[in-house]
Structures are given as structure tokens and as C-alpha cells.
Amino acid sequence: MIIREFKRPDIKRVLEIETSCFNDPYPPSILIDIYNLGAGFLVAQQDNMVVGYIIFWIRYEDEGHIISLAVDKKYRRKNIGSQLVDYAIDIFNKCNVREIKLEVRVGNRGAREFYKESGFEEKKILKNYYEDGEDAVMMRKALKLNFTNKPKD
Ligand SMILES: CC(C)(COP(=O)(O)OP(=O)(O)OC[C@H]1O[C@@H](n2cnc3c(N)ncnc32)[C@H](O)[C@@H]1OP(=O)(O)O)[C@@H](O)C(=O)NCCC(=O)NCCS
């Protein structure tokens, strides 16, 4: 399995995974817009095809945000989601991001467990967050200070 940057031809597989994972998938135009606006967009590739992806950005100066993460059903529980998150965290660390936030549907028990396993804490409920009225759980992970970028005394 390799993790690499998203390229335009990957959009077909990303959309297949997105629509199979979410009842309210992002339309292709929004995904391309997010990419063109400079968000981080990584894909996991195995067996010569894209099997997962993560989209993230720096929302404020030191706050990172995971916009979307999904792994093809056939490739789950093989550590691919964890590696995508770790890769994004490496990039966030290099950008001196101090905390990462994300929202997940309250009913998405699997993803909530996954993020807890990845070191995220459930911070608060966001009422009626989704268009269908479902609440979201806002989750947060603090990142360690990146001392290598600090000036010496
Ligand atoms: C959430 C998701 C990305 C996890 O991807 P994955 O590659 O299967 O996750 P990993 O294999 O790295 O899982 C790491 C650990 O997280 C936990 N975990 C993962 N999925 C879980 C689930 N469905 N239920 C409970 N715990 C889970 C486990 O502890 C797992 O370790 P284990 O397999 O050794 O028990 C994947 O289930 C998915 O695409 N879901 C649909 C889309 C989605 O909900 N995205 C998140 C909201 S943005």
C-alpha cells in the first residue's frame, strides 16, 4: 500500500468510494473545488487502484480540520485509515498545527471508535449539524509542539 497525493484521474475511484460510504456524498464539483483551493488530498493505493482517501486543510492558523476520510469497504480493518490519518498528521505537524478537529455523525459508531483509537477525543455535540437533521460529534486531537522549528534561546 502506498500513500500519495491525489491526481485528477483519481476522481472516479474517489467518487465510487465516497458514494458507497456516505448517504450524502460530496458532489464531484465540490471535491475538485476543495482540491483546487489547496486542501490536502491524499489517496491510498493498493492492488493498482485507489482504495481510500483523506481530505484535510488548515482552517485557522494553527487548527487543522479533517474534511473527509473513507476506505473502500473491501479494504477496511487493514490499517489504511490509520495510515492516512498519520500521514495527514505529519503534514499538519510540519505546518505547526497545534490541534485537529473533525465532525462525525453521532450514528457513525464505527468512525467514532476509529477516531478514538487514533487519539481523538469527543468534545461536544453539534445539534442538527447535517442537512437531514442528524447531530454531529465534534472530535479533537492535540498535537505536540514541533520544537525543531522553534528558535534556539
Ligand atoms: C472509518 C474508516 C475510515 C476506518 O478505516 P479503516 O482502514 O477500516 O481503519 P483501520 O483499519 O485503520 O482501523 C484502526 C482501528 O480503529 C478501530 N476501528 C476501525 N473501524 C472500526 C469500526 N467499524 N468499529 C470499531 N472500531 C473500529 C479499530 O480499533 C481498528 O483496529 P483493529 O482493526 O486492529 O481493531 C472506515 O471505516 C470508513 O471508510 N468508514 C466509512 C466512511 C466514514 O465513516 N468516514 C469517517 C467520517 S468522515
Would you mind describing this structure in some detail?
There is one protein chain. By secondary structure, the protein is of the alpha+beta class. The protein has one domain (2-149): Aminopeptidase, CATH 3.40.630. Helices cover 29% and strands 34% of the residues. The protein has helices at 11-21, 28-36, 80-94, 109-117; strands at residues 2-5, 40-46, 49-60, 63-71, 99-105, 121-126, 136-142. It has a seven-stranded mixed beta sheet. The radius of gyration is 16 Å and the shape is globular. It starts with a strand and ends in an 11-residue tail after the last strand. The mean pLDDT is 93. The site of coenzyme A has 19 residues, from strand 4, helix 3 and helix 4.
CATH topology: Aminopeptidase
- CATH top level is Alpha Beta
* Beta-strand segment tally: 7
Order of helices and strands: EHHEEEHEHEE
> How much helix, percentage-wise, in residues?
25-40%
Second-tier CATH architecture: 3-Layer(aba) Sandwich
Helix run count: 4
* Proportion of residues in extended strands: 25-35%
Q: Which strand order do you get reading across the main beta sheet?
A: 1-2-3-4-5-7-6
Ions and ligands: coenzyme A
Oligomer: single chain
Biggest sheet overview: 7 strands, mixed
**Average pLDDT for all residues:** 93
| Tally of separate domains | 1
Output the CATH homologous superfamily. Answer: Gcn5-related N-acetyltransferase (GNAT)
Distance N terminus to C terminus?
42 Å
Report the principal-axis shape: globular
Structural class: alpha+beta
Spans where pLDDT lies below 50 across 5 or more residues: none
